[in-house]
Amino acid sequence: QVQLVESGGGLVQAGGSLRLSCAASGSIFRINAMRWYRQVPGKQRELVAVISSGGSTNYADSAKGRFTISRDNAKNTVYLQMNSLKPEDTAVYYCNAHLTDRTYYTDNYWGQGTQVTVSS
C-alpha cells in the first residue's frame, strides 16, 4: 500500500513564501515523475509543476519564475517552493506520484491536499 502525505500549506500575505512537502511511503519500488496540481472550487484541477525521476522540471506559465519543484529521492519526497505568492495562487494543492510498487504495479497516486491561502 502506498500513501502520499502533504504538508506546508497555510495562510500567507501576498508577496510571501511557502514550501510544500509531499512524502511517499509504503511498498514503493520506484517513483517516476512527481507533480504538483492545484484546484479552486468550481474549477478543474490544474498542473503546476512536474519533476522527472532524473530531475528535469516543467512549470505552468503561472508558476514560472516564482515556484521551484525539487525532490529528494532518498526520502521519497517532493517539494514545491512558492515565492512571490499572489492571491490567485489560493487553492488546494495536491501532489501526485507516478510510481511502481513492490509488486511491480504502476499507477498514479494522490495526496490528500493542502490548503494554500494568499491574502491581499
Short recap of the structure:
With 120 residues, the protein is mainly β.
Biggest sheet descriptor: 7 strands, mixed
What are the segments in which pLDDT stays under 50 over at least 5 consecutive residues?
none
Q: Name the helix and strand elements from N-terminus to C-terminus, one letter apiece.
A: EEEEEEEEEEE
Helix content estimate: under 10%
Query: Averaging pLDDT over every residue, what do you get?
Result: 97
How do the strands and helices of this protein lay out in sequence?
Blueprint: E1 2-7, E2 10-13, E3 18-26, E4 28-39, E5 46-51, E6 57-59, E7 67-72, E8 77-82, E9 91-101, E10 106-110, E11 114-119
Parallel strand pairs: 2-11
Antiparallel strand pairs: 1-3, 3-8, 4-5, 4-9, 5-6, 7-8, 9-10, 9-11
How does this model look, in words?
By secondary structure, the protein is an all-beta fold. The chain is 0% helix and 62% strand. The chain contains no helices and 11 strands. It has strands at 2-7, 10-13, 18-26, 28-39, 46-51, 57-59, 67-72, 77-82, 91-101, 106-110, 114-119. Strands 2, 4, 5, 6, 9, 10 and 11 form a 7-stranded mixed β-sheet that branches. Strands 1-3-8-7 form a 4-stranded antiparallel β-sheet, with no helix packed on it. A hairpin with a 5-residue loop joins strand 5 and strand 6. It is elongated and about 50 Å long.
